[in-house]
Amino acid sequence: MCVYIRTSRMAKAKVLKELCAISDSKFWLEIQHKKLKVVLLCVVYRPPDCSVSCFGDDFMENYMHALTFGKEIFVTGDQNWYILSDCSEAHSLGDLCDSLNLTQPIKTPARVKSQSS
C-alpha cells in the first residue's frame, strides 16, 4: 500500500501501525488539527470475494482495538456494499455497523448513471 500524507503547521497525521498491522484491508490514521480535536480515520476495503462474516470479524477486532484510543472514529472506503439493496449481505453489513454504533450519513446513491443500477 502506498500512502501520501500532507502535513502542515495546522494539521498533522500519523499512521497507527499497531492497528494497520492487524489487517491488510484497513489503514488507520490519527489526525490532529491545531483548532480541532484529534480523530482516528480508518480507510477500509472489502474485496467482492471476501465474505461479510470474514470482513465483519476482522473489522470488529480492529475497531475494538481502535476504541481503546478514546478518540472519535471515522470509517470510510469501499466495502463493496450497495446500501439500498435488500439482499442478506447488505443487511449483515448494516447490522455490523449498527452493532458498532456507526452511522451512514449518505442516504441516496452518490453516483447514478444510465449504465449503473
How would you characterize this protein structure?
The two termini are 30 Å apart. By secondary structure, the chain is an alpha+beta fold. The chain has helices at residues 17-20, 52-67, 88-99, and strands at residues 11-15, 26-33, 39-45, 72-78. It is globular, with a radius of gyration of 16 Å. Helix 2 packs parallel to helix 3 (88-99). It has one domain (11-99): Endonuclease/exonuclease/phosphatase (Deoxyribonuclease I, Chain A, 4-Layer Sandwich), CATH 3.60.10.10. It has a 4-stranded mixed sheet.
List the defining traits of the structure above:
alpha+beta; single chain; 3 helices; Deoxyribonuclease I, Chain A; globular; 117 residues
SSE layout:
Elements: E1 11-15, H1 17-20, E2 26-33, E3 39-45, H2 52-67, E4 72-78, H3 88-99
Parallel strand pairs: 3-4
Antiparallel strand pairs: 1-2, 2-3
Helix pairs in contact: 2-3
Please state the structural category. alpha+beta
List low-pLDDT spans: none
Distance between the termini: 30 Å
The structural domain count equals 1
Number of discrete helical segments = 3
What average pLDDT do the residues reach?
78
**Strand order across the largest sheet:** 1-2-3-4
- Write down the CATH topology: Deoxyribonuclease I, Chain A
- Helix content class: 25-40%
Work out the number of β strands: 4
Q: In this structure, how is the largest beta sheet organized?
A: 4 strands, mixed
Globular, elongated, flat, extended or rod-shaped: what is the shape? globular
| Rg, Cα atoms, Å | 16 Å
Strand percentage lies at 15-25%
- What's the CATH architecture? 4-Layer Sandwich
Q: Would you identify the CATH H-level superfamily? A: Endonuclease/exonuclease/phosphatase
CATH class category label:
Alpha Beta
- Element-by-element helix/strand order: EHEEHEH
